Amino acid sequence: MLLEINDLTLLYGRIQALHGISLRVNEGEVVALIGANGAGKTTTMRAISGLRPVASGSIVFDGTDVTRMRADLRVIRGIGQAPEGRGVFPGMTVMENLEMGAYTRRDRSEINKDLDMVLDLFPRLAERRKQPGGTLSGGEQQMLAVGRALMARPRLLLLDEPSMGLAPKLIQQIFEIITRINEQGTTILLVEQNAQQALSRAHRGYVLETGRIVKEGTGEALLHDPAVKEAYLGVA
């Protein structure tokens, strides 16, 4: 097991955002975490990456308890994230943004290999390599955020709402690339409001409601679950 979260609680001031959630991600999987706005999906991702301190419970990555570990040390251990809202550096070029993703690394020849890999995955970024990140379209910025996260060579890639604000054709393209990334050996935890796309590509999934996990199962089982269909797929 690559990631194991046990009975995790998290507070924002006096408000409890997560109520004892537990989940696991096995090596090589795509695992989807779906839920409505405010369910606690992004909060869960921030807890895993070390951007939010937890109140209780544990986060175990590759057999090591990382619950209190600094965020940068988690990156070095192999946890990478493409955050909600993309978070590209607007004044830096595409190439500079990608280089920032490798800031914890010193293996120059391997970094160059990974740059080639990212530009192969995202030919659009290769075309715009000298453009400032802030001048890219929303879809291109999303590609850049994912590419930058890959530059850390993560074993676990956290993707937070990769389809947000994108046109349907681009959403399809992003999810096809997510599948390719997984097929190349990267384990993925995917937070997504587009439940149809997420569950159709996930090995397993969890449904989060108001800070609690209320359902779990294979992606296919959740896709055909009547309650999930009604709540998240627009099917009564």
From TrEMBL:
PANTHER family reported in the protein's UniProt record: HIGH-AFFINITY BRANCHED-CHAIN AMINO ACID TRANSPORT ATP-BINDING PROTEIN LIVF
Domain ABC transporter: residue ranges: 3-235
UniProt xrefs under SMART domains: AAA
Family to which this protein belongs: Belongs to the ABC transporter superfamily.
Listed name of the protein: ABC transporter ATP-binding protein
Record-linked InterPro entries: AAA+_ATPase (IPR003593), ABC_branched_ATPase_LivF/BraG (IPR030660), ABC_transporter-like_ATP-bd (IPR003439), ABC_transporter-like_CS (IPR017871), BCAA_Transport_ATP-bd_LivF (IPR052156), P-loop_NTPase (IPR027417)
Leader sequence residues: none
Keywords: Amino-acid transport, ATP-binding, Nucleotide-binding, Transport
GO molecular function: ATP binding
